[in-house]
Amino acid sequence: MPARYWICQHVPDVFRNEPRNVGVIVQLGNEKAGRFFAEISPEQMDGRKLSKWVHSDVYRQWVAYWRRELPRQAVESLIATSASNYRVIEGGEVTDFGSDSVDSVLGYLYGLLVEGGFAEVIEEDKDLSDKTSLSLEEDVATELSKLRILTRDDSAPVRHPVRRNQTISGRHIAQHRPAFSQNNGTLYVVESIDFTSPQKKRVRDKAGWSVYMFRDIREEHEGAVAMTIVRIKDEDRNNDDISSGLLCLESEGPIIDWSKEKERKAFLLERELIANQL
Questions:
Q1: How far apart are CA 165 and CA 178, in angstroms?
Q2: Listed residue (27, 102, 100) closest to 70, CA to CA
Q3: Rounded to whole angstroms, how far apart are CA atoms 188 and 224?
Q4: Alpha-carbon gap, residue 34 to 164, rounded angstroms
Q5: Residue 267 near residue 148, CB atoms below 8 Å
Q6: CA distance 75 to 66
Q7: Domains, the chain, ordered by start
């Protein structure tokens, strides 16, 4: 049985329509659970996290309302009662949770959708891999740094640097943080996915989320180019979850196999040429 989830959003400026994800609701069988930004417990908020929040009292009221109504009615009813500044939208389904509880699934999705992306929620996967090996994203970052074109700010000595984990707005989600991006008039969005991870279904889910991110960014940034850097073994390609993830990504843009020297060098050369364009 899949776990269904919904996303709670705050839209500060209705005219600009740039929502921020502030909570997640999960239903697994007959169990429902929710988690919301700044909560210490279901009845207590961390005021420090809301110190710069305009009309934080309204946000508190909405969270209290969602919590009060969650056990009383179907989540679809919360969608119907959404307002212009606070709303609940359909999320989707998660299938790779084994025997995890509804709270475990909730924690995973909250980290993904509210706290900032897959880098946080798949941290646990690193413990399952060889700790002596460099993560794929770090490996790519190292090579870009050698070319002196990678930055997290404006310190790179090139006109169009590659930026790491830069916040990029989408049409429906206000803050995406792809692994890398570059902009020379055309926005290039690059995600990295290590298909050698033992958590095949979770990696497939990351591929699915990356596809959603690419499409959401393209809706907001016309002409944006999406590409995915992957690490994959030949035997992984026979796995149904891996082949499914790759098929989804292939429809969005180029896939660079980091283990193939020709593809790796071509990607780095293109980034360097764009970085130094006048």
A1: 5
A2: 27
A3: 6
A4: 31
A5: no
A6: 9
A7: 3-115 (no CATH), 125-275 (3.40.1350.10)
Report whether 204 contacts 144 (CB < 8 A). no
- Name residues whose C-beta falls within 8 Å of residue 131's C-beta, 6 or more positions apart in sequence: none
Give every CB contact of residue 215 below 8 A, 6+ residues apart in sequence. 252
- Residue 30, judged by CB atoms within 10 A of its CB (0-12, 13-18, 19+), counts as exposed
CA distance 193 to 226: 13
Q: What is the pLDDT of residues 9-58, one digit of tens each?
A: 998 877 777 788 899 999 999 999 999 998 888 778 888 888 878 788 99
**Where are any strands of DSSP class E within 141-266?**
150-151, 162-164, 180-183, 187-194, 225-231, 255-257
The residue length of the chain stands at 278
Query: Tell me: the pLDDT tens digits for 147-199?
Result: 999 987 666 678 999 999 888 988 876 678 899 999 999 999 999 999 988 87
